[in-house]
Design a protein that fits this description.
This protein is α/β, with parallel strands linked by helices. The chain has one domain: NAD(P)-binding Rossmann-like Domain (Rossmann fold), CATH 3.40.50. Helix content is 42%, strand content 17%. It is built from 8 helices and 7 strands. The chain has a 7-stranded parallel sheet with strand order 3-2-1-4-5-6-7, with helices on both faces. Helix 2 links the parallel strand 2 and strand 3.
Length: 252
């Protein structure tokens, strides 16, 4: 899929920004979405254009299904006006947030917020964008290592990511006739601002995770961005319906 066009949700920071930068370095044009921070999204676009590729940023609340039809219309206009085409090649469902609370303290509002973004958002945004995804393209859903192993405080987040893994297989089965392959990528703990930056900034937590990881360190954004680009490459064209954990061997 060299010189293809990829849409990355939540591309203003963290894994989304890393994905956009890695994809641009490998010859892809990139559209990113952002929730509130337009300036950071534009910084991602600047990095894409500095790599010699075309980029664009669009506002999107992935937790608000009612806004998806409007987003699809704005995306269609951007495809036409900025990229001179009426479709795109790959979708990375990356946008998300975390809730780190003990099971006994997690509220209905906490759970609803996670469901809206991490499951309903992925489900219905992908559905809304299907007419714009090119036949033979790809969808990559961002899961989590927490769907396989458990850490206290993530009783809502982890199971929802397991649901994303299951949804990925159903998508792959149903979109096969269009030759659209669908996989999920499951990062381990990564040094970003996710969850308030606790993995990045709390040295004790960072060291504890590194100790539980075969390669002896916590992940970095570029570890995941590079893996995302790899999973969208022609060399990965026969990988479909799979969960690929990118966690350095955490809790093996």
């Amino acid at each position: 899929m060299t010189q293809s066009l990829v849409l990355v949700t939540g591309g203003s920071r963290g894994l989304g920004r890393s994905a956009a930068e890695c994809l641009a370095a490998r010859g892809h044009d990139v559209i990113v979405t952002y929730l509130r921070n337009r300036a950071e999204a534009e910084a991602t676009v600047a990095a894409v254009t500095a790599a010699g590729r075309k980029g664009a940023a669009l506002q999107l609340d992935t937790g608000a299904v009612a806004g998806f039809a409007d987003f699809a219309a704005r995306l269609r206009a951007t495809l036409r006006d900025t990229f001179g085409r009426d479709d795109f090649d790959a979708l990375i469902n990356n946008a998300g947030h975390g809730v780190a609370k003990p099971f006994a303290e997690t509220t209905e509002a906490d759970l609803d917020g996670l469901v809206n973004v991490h499951f309903k958002g992925v489900y219905f945004l992908t559905q809304a964008l299907l007419p714009l995804i090119k036949d033979g393209g790809a969808i990559l859903n961002v899961s989590s290592g927490l769907a396989r192993f458990c850490m206290p405080g993530f009783s809502a987040y982890g199971p929802l990511k397991a649901a994303v893994d299951s949804l990925t297989r159903y998508m792959a089965a149903e979109l096969g006739p269009r030759r659209i392959r669908v996989n999920s990528i499951a990062p381990g703990a990564i040094e970003t601002d996710f969850g308030g930056g606790v993995v990045r900034d709390d040295r004790a937590i960072n060291a504890r995770i590194a100790q539980a990881t075969a390669l002896g360190r916590v992940g970095r954004p570029e570890d995941i961005g590079g893996a995302m680009a790899m999973l969208l490459s022609p060399e990965s064209g026969w990988i479909n319906g799979q969960r690929v954990e990118v966690a350095g061997g955490t809790h093996l």
